[in-house]
Amino acid sequence: MEVYIIRHGESINNWFKKANKPSAQFERSVDPPLTSLGEAQARRAAEALVGSSIERVYCSPQIRGLQTGVIIGDRLGVPVEARPFLRERAGGHTDYHGLPAAQIRARFPQVELGPDFTEEGWWFRPAEPRDTDATYRRGLEVAEWLWSLTETYDSVALISHGAFGARMMLALLGLPADSSVRFKQENGGISRLVLEEGMVRCIYWNDTRHMRELGSDVGAEAAV
């Protein structure tokens, strides 16, 4: 089975970090949307994936993941399903439970939701501190799930995040959580893996050629 891993487009927080704005000017969001550049990156990624034979898109249920997933799913004409375990690591946000199911359905009617999505939110696990292996263990969970999909699909796409995507890749390749190997992925970057005969082959990682002509001067005021 082919697995395309796509990092969501640029979010308000990504722009905030890149622009190095003082906190007095801009407050980071626990669940930020895409900027207009992020939407453009998602559209470029979608075009790059045309002809890839992707049968289904699975996305993070955080807003930037949902937006990116819908853009790609609509362009490819395939179903989009949100999965909580594709979310980004939590940091210190212990009181965040995700958007209620009704809000997700109203804003993203194309996205399929499973039983984990309720009107109280979709995330009630403890936060994942940056100095623990909790995110890696979730990567192992995703790896096991992906292998189970090989019995059903020939090609799927995952829309996830930078920090979690790196941990997930370690888990997929059987590398330890404390490995010195790093898998950096840019916003809108595409990676392609093949899972077959008990082996994982990385065909390429973080392909960003489809975004070469995009500018990078979009501010948070352009976010949608």
What can you see in these coordinates?
- The structure is a single chain.
- The protein is 31% helix and 17% strand.
- By secondary structure, it is an alpha/beta fold.
- The chain has one domain (2-222): Rossmann fold, CATH 3.40.50.
- It has a seven-stranded mixed beta sheet with strand order 4-3-2-5-1-6-7.
- A hairpin with a 2-residue loop joins strand 6 (190-196) and strand 7.
- Helix 2 runs parallel beside helix 3 (63-76).
- The chain is globular.
- It starts with a strand and ends in a 17-residue tail after the last strand.
- Residues 217-224 have low confidence and may be disordered.
Features:
single chain; 224 residues; alpha/beta; Rossmann fold; 6 helices; 31% helix; globular; disordered C terminus
CATH fold description: Rossmann fold
Rg over CA atoms: 17 Å
Low-confidence regions: 217-224
Q: Kindly, what is the distance between the CA atoms of the first and last residues, rounded to a whole number of angstroms?
A: 35 Å
Percent strand equals 15-25%
Number of domains: 1
The level of helicity is 25-40%
Query: What is the element string, with H for helices and E for strands?
Result: EHHEHEHEHEHEE
Main sheet strand line-up: 4-3-2-5-1-6-7
Q: SS-based structural class?
A: alpha/beta
Number of helices: 6
Overall geometric form: globular
Question: What's the CATH architecture name?
Answer: 3-Layer(aba) Sandwich
Summarize the biggest pleated sheet.
7 strands, mixed
Number of DSSP strands?
A: 7
Instruction: Give the CATH H-level superfamily.
Output: Phosphoglycerate mutase-like
